[in-house]
Amino acid sequence: MNFSILPKLFFSLLLTLPFSAQAEPELYTGFFSDLAVSGYDTVAYFREGKAIEGIERFSTQHKGATWQFKNQSNLDAFLLSPESYAPQYGGYCAWAVAHENTAKGDPQQWHITNGKLYLNYDIKIRGQWLKDKEALITRADANWPQVLD
């Protein structure tokens, strides 16, 4: 048997297979990580009003991702009510979701509105988000989670 043609056959087979768009995961973690919010402590946004990186020692699994916190107290608060502290739209950019799309959420570009945490793609998008956040929240809520499909 001539094994030199196997790579060509394999490549040809791949080209004939139907490709369908895959749905985005429920939580944004990036391509090579399982860290929610890039490892930032989501409780700290509420308690300290700033983005603080979590520590591996204070971590938990939730919805298929690893969540890290700066201390045991913040981890405990998250464990009691994860939905209270998790960012909206799975940590994807809230502005993108409002525009029927997905993009990474940057943990440095955040805002809390009505007790909910929202992440944005970058500082420019955050500025656009803040100009009309109430209307954009309404639109994003209507698009979520269908935008993942």
Fold topology:
Layout lengths: L5 H11 L25 H7 L6 E8 L2 E5 L2 H9 L1 H4 L8 H5 L7 E8 L2 E5 L2 H9 L1 H11 L6
Antiparallel strand pairs: 1-2, 3-4
Please describe what this structure looks like.
With 149 residues, this protein is α+β, with helices and mostly antiparallel strands. It has two domains: 25-83, no CATH class; 87-149, no CATH class. The protein is 38% helix and 17% strand. It is built from seven helices and four strands. The protein has helices at 6-16, 42-48, 72-80, 82-85, 94-98, 123-131, 133-143; strands spanning 55-62, 65-69, 106-113, 116-120. The longest helix has 11 residues, at 6-16. The chain starts with 5 loop residues before the first helix and ends in a 6-residue tail after the last helix. Residues 9-20 have low confidence and may be disordered.
* Uncertain spans: 9-20
Helix content: 25-40%
Q: How far is the N terminus from the C terminus?
A: 44 Å
What is the approximate shape? globular
Strand content: 15-25%
Write out the strand line-up for the largest beta sheet, numbering strands in chain order.
1-2
Rg (CA only): 19 Å
**Individual helix count:** 7
- The class by helix and strand makeup works out as alpha+beta
**What's the count of strands?**
4
Tell me the count of domains: 2
